[in-house]
Design goal:
By secondary structure, the protein is α/β, with parallel strands linked by helices. The chain has one domain (45-288). Helix content is 56%, strand content 9%. The chain has 13 helices and five strands. Strands 3-2-4-1-5 form a five-stranded parallel β-sheet, sandwiched between helices.
């Protein structure tokens, strides 16, 4: 008994000697200055997938209504359905909601309605929403105003501003033009499904991102500011699009699939990563 009592006392004394003092438990001044709250983690996150698409019927080498491409589109829709979206969102303004949903209701009872409509809104958006059993589709675009230095904006005027920057033209424009031509040539050799995979690849989206921050941003520096203001307007448009999504998001329960021009993809995903309501799911990983 004496041995056991001594052993017990020794264990207790050892434990007490190892217990941190009150001061040791206190955060350091550095820890205090860098401490942040994780309150945003409590916000329910809806999953969101951005399908970046070329605009159907605008590229001559594809005829989306051909028998071969209809099979490619069906394959694409079936693959997107694996995401199990609760909402399909198209690149149209909310003010047109009644127009497009009236058309969608007609399509639900007559699939042939879109047989002559090649746009991705119908060939992808309508088809996917019906396949998922959705009662309606959702619209989120915003045609942001061209104001201030952009009042008379045109891409021709933008190119003229770029041409004034001779150093940039010599160093970068030729390289950018060549890489664009090579990328397009490669993509045009692909079938429709594989071309869509390419549009959604991280490499293509990085090219889009860097091109806009290398080209447009240099037009009219300390003069008209046309290029930087155009890029600012681009961000503003996509920020408004993100805000429109929040209007009909069902927090933590939605799986939204957005069909949008592929140059929007990098911008929107950047904004979604910064919006605590959303968790981005890769369309590329799904499609490839």
């Amino acid at each position: 008994m004496k041995i056991n009592l001594f052993s017990t006392l020794l264990i207790l004394l050892t434990a007490l000697s190892c217990t941190p003092t009150e001061n040791e438990n206190m955060p350091t001044e550095e820890e205090k200055s860098t401490a942040v709250t994780s309150a945003f983690d409590a916000i329910p996150k809806s999953q969101i997938m951005v399908l970046g698409s070329y605009h159907f019927a605008q590229e001559d080498h594809y005829y989306e209504l051909s028998e071969a491409n209809q099979k490619e589109i069906a394959k694409l829709v079936n693959k997107l359905a694996e995401f199990k979206p609760t909402k399909v969102v198209i690149e149209k303004e909310p003010r047109l909601d009644s127009v497009y949903n009236a058309l969608y209701q007609k399509y639900l009872v007559d699939e042939q309605l879109i047989d002559t409509l090649p746009n991705e809104t119908y060939q992808l958006g309508f088809r996917l929403a019906k396949k998922m059993g959705h009662e309606k589709i959702y619209l989120f675009d915003d045609k942001t105003e061209f104001i201030g230095s952009l009042e008379n904006f045109s891409f021709e005027a933008l190119d003229e501003e770029i041409a004034k920057n001779e150093v940039f033209v010599k160093q970068h424009v030729e390289v950018m033009t060549k890489s664009y031509a090579e990328n397009e040539s490669t993509r045009q050799s692909l079938n429709l499904y594989d071309a869509m995979v390419s549009h959604n690849s991280p490499q293509h989206q990085e090219w889009n991102t860097q091109r806009m921050h290398a080209y447009e941003i240099r037009a009219g520096i300390q003069d008209s500011w046309m290029g930087p203001d155009w890029l600012g307007r681009w961000y503003q448009r996509n920020i408004r699009m993100t805000s429109n999504l929040l209007r009909f998001n069902n927090p933590g329960k939605d799986r939204m699939l957005i069909i949008v021009g592929d140059n929007h993809k990098w911008t929107l995903e950047t904004l979604f990563h910064s919006t605590p309501d959303f968790e981005v799911v890769s369309s590329y990983d799904l499609l490839k």
